[in-house]
């Protein structure tokens, strides 16, 4: 019998956990009570002890082909080749529930797809695999799944960092680097200290396009921004002036910059949403 027990929290020594009454029902002779049969317990799984998450340990157990959804508490393994290029690598755990992941015997941590956001979506679906863990070919992937799951939808993906975003409001504090300590007193190092959107392309790339810009009340998140009811008509123009052709840029949160003549929604707290494309 395998059970999960609490391993943290206050007053652990006073908390009872585990089976209490155990009986076998449906026997011709009636109910068989096994409660006092001298039960013992051990911490951990046999798979952990023989280290089935590395290739050498995996040879000590017999594996069967995965077909369809499996019951809870199941070990899975497969091989994959490293994706081309130098982009960051991640594993997308579609179809899985909760458990642990190993690549070439190294743990990359816990996955928890069954923990959902208020929108009914997993709070995290992709998990980083360091490039240093990966060989060019035949990378050994092992997953310990604690819930009924379908592993055939798992994907190895690369993360595109050529699209970068910023989402900042007027009420965000200015960058902490706007001040410096001088003789035990913090003083501003800029002539004008104000909140700004700061963007920086990776790997010395430059901003080649402003894909979205709105100063007003935009909604959404990076990759899915949308205009709200309030928007400066020169938002994209302002961001292009500050960012195009640069590896990094700073766009001030300044109503006078975005609403030169008339602020059509003066009572709305302004937000600046930016999405830009970077390339060499």
From TrEMBL:
This is beta-galactosidase. CDD domains: Gal_Rha_Lectin_BGal (cd22842). Keywords: Apoplast, Glycoprotein, Glycosidase, Hydrolase, Secreted, Signal. The keyword Ribonucleoprotein does not apply. Residues 194-279 form the SUEL-type lectin domain. It is found in: Secreted, Extracellular space, Apoplast. Belongs to the glycosyl hydrolase 35 family. Gene3D superfamilies: 2.60.120.740, Galactose-binding domain-like (2.60.120.260). GO terms for cellular component: apoplast. It catalyses: Hydrolysis of terminal non-reducing beta-D-galactose residues in beta-D-galactosides. It comes from Rubus argutus.
